[in-house]
Structures are given as C-alpha cells and as structure tokens.
Amino acid sequence: MRVYRELLPHSCLLILTDSDGESGPAPLARALCWALRHRYRRVWVDCSSVAVLSTAVLRLLRRGAALLQQRGGCLVLCHPPESFDAPATGEIPDGLAVAASLLDAEHVPTLPD
C-alpha cells in the first residue's frame, strides 16, 4: 500500500493505492498521524485505487475517526471498494463516515466549533 497526502483548503486528503512497496498498514498509520497533526478537523480517505481494505486498515481508519470525533471532526472514507460491506453513503459504526465521492465528502457534517 502506498498513501499520498495532500492538504486541501478545509481538509486533509489521503489517497490509498495498491502498489508495490511497503506492505501492511504502516504507510496508512504514518499518513493518519500526519493528518491528525494538522489543524483541519476533516480527513478524507480516497480508496478509489484499492481493491480491498484489510481488517488492519479498517482498524486504523476507525481509530483515526474516533480521535477526530473527539476533536469535533470526522474521517470520511471516499470511493469505498466494492468489497467493502457498508452503505454507499452514511454513517457506519465507530464514527467512520462513508461517501460515494470526494464531492459527497464535503457534505458530511462535523460538530460545530
């Protein structure tokens, strides 16, 4: 797995890719730490380039979502893989939100300041 990071005007974007390179969830763990250090309360995770989200990756995403929720923010999983068993849009357990696209992620609510 490879993770690309980008700062957007109101959020951090993490783009997950299936690629040769470091295997396991370590790249995602580093990217989530990076995103959580920024002042933004929104983290969007684009999964359009991955076929499957492993249990370890889902565990990391839920942990990151819980930390963001404590700060009044949200983590939004965008373009979930077909193998991901969740509604196309909406809230799933542990505060991890799902959006069909990055445009839809903008409409996922966060807690007011």
The number of E-state strands comes to: 6
Give me the Rg, rounded.
13 Å
Broad shape: globular
Q: Could you say which structural class the secondary elements and strand pairing correspond to?
A: alpha/beta
Helix content: 25-40%
SS element count, helices = 3
Strand and helix order:
EEHEHEEEH
Write out the strand line-up for the largest beta sheet, numbering strands in chain order. Answer: 1-2-3-4-6-5
Low-confidence parts lasting 5 or more residues at pLDDT below 50?
87-91
Sheet of most strands: 6 strands, mixed
Quaternary organisation of the protein chains: single chain
**Whole-number mean pLDDT:** 84
Brief descriptors of the model:
alpha/beta, 6 strands, 27% strand, 113 residues, globular, six-stranded mixed beta sheet
Architecture overview:
A hairpin with a 4-residue loop joins strand 1 and strand 2. With 113 residues, the chain is α/β, with parallel strands linked by helices. It is built from three helices and six strands. About 4% of the residues have low confidence. The longest helix has 16 residues. A six-stranded mixed β-sheet has the order 1-2-3-4-6-5. 36% of the residues are buried. The termini are far apart. The protein is globular, with a radius of gyration of 13 Å.
